[in-house]
Amino acid sequence: MMMAQKLFIISVFCLAFVGMAMADNGSRKKKTAATAKAKNSSTKTNGRKTLVLSDTTEAPAKTTEAAVAKKNAIPDLFEASANGSNGVKLNPRAVSFVQDYMETHSKDLLKMKDWGRPYFNMMDAVFTRYNLPIELKYLAVIESKLKSSAVSWAGAVGPWQFMPVTARELGLKVTHKVDERKDYIKSTHAAAKYLRDLYNEFGDWLLVIAAYNGGPGNVYSAIKKSGGSRNFWTIQRYLPNETRNHVKKFIGTHYIFEGQGGVTTLTKAETVEQISAVSQLLSERNLSEQEMADVKSIKVSGKYHSQVIAKYVLMDVAEFNRYNPNFDRVMATAENSYELKLPSAKMDLFVSNKYQILNESVQLLLSGATVSAIITSVSRPAKK
């Protein structure tokens, strides 16, 4: 009887071992198949080949982690800060496309930011000479990836992707022996002339970028179909899909390289609104040129309070608020981020006491100070 029990137990262990081995083998096969599937996956989306700057493929187990990390790494760049430190707000109709673009291409484009520095420096000098925004250099990134040898299916050549007729009109030599579209300096001068002419024609940088890609004719046709609107976000539905996405790729590239939007990512109306917001901010600060020259700034987030900061940097609260209007109001909102500005000597005091200030600010809030009391305190000077 004892022998039978022993044989039964041994049989159970053997079956369990075989089952584990088969499960492990099946798991390995699944992983191998998943890896092969990932390596053979197409780079096309909805029938259109997407811009791929890197041919490397991560193992499936790492892909999800990498995607999550990329998404978490992109800050909330698209909303204007209440304090004006980033006053540029991205149009809501572009946010989804631009965020996906940034998640996909940030790694490779940031590498380009490093190796492409000599080209960008040259372009900066040329665009400055023509009194153009230097951020227009990012057009060359999406046009050709900065390659002088780039050739499109339509016959456009060089870093700025000029067609032969356009290139000759802009003064470039295009013959069987010489093609100045491939010359970085000469083609950049030609691009500057063309962009300047387009801006004189449309007066809106997003329309300029659309016209650079699809031609002025397509832009005028879209304007007409829209009922006369000259706002890119209104007429985009009437533009070719390639041109519409070209503008959004430019915006995404701008955000990757600059960390925020700028004048070339805004429509004319948005630019006017932005200038008004900046002017309002400057008038609220009401600082003299001498004071502005001595200002240092630092981005802060957390439960900082103006009264505590003022105490540690030896400033009157009213004086602190002159440098930092609406500080407590902003810090009490969900945004909870502010570009703190202080005279250089005061900033040194803030930095050296930063953690004590934060701790005491938190204690102040925990002591029962309400949001309304915090906001009201902005206008009250501290007791001496």
Widest beta sheet: strand line-up: 1-2
Query: Tell me, what's the shape?
Result: elongated
Q: What is the CATH topology classification name of the largest domain?
A: Lysozyme
Task: Point out poorly predicted stretches.
Answer: 1-76, 80-86, 369-384
Can you characterise this structure?
The protein has 19 helices and four strands. The longest helix is centred in the first third of the chain and has 38 residues, at 2-39. The relative contact order is 0.08. The strands form two sheets. It has a two-stranded antiparallel ribbon. It has a two-stranded antiparallel ribbon with strand order 3-4. It has two domains: 81-275, Orthogonal Bundle (Lysozyme), CATH 1.10.530.10; 290-379, no CATH class. A hairpin with a 2-residue loop joins β1 (44-45) and β2 (48-49). Mean pLDDT is 77; it is low at 1-76, 80-86 and 369-384. By secondary structure, it is mainly alpha-helical. It is elongated, with a radius of gyration of 29 Å. α8 (205-214) packs across α11 (241-258) and α14 runs antiparallel to α18.
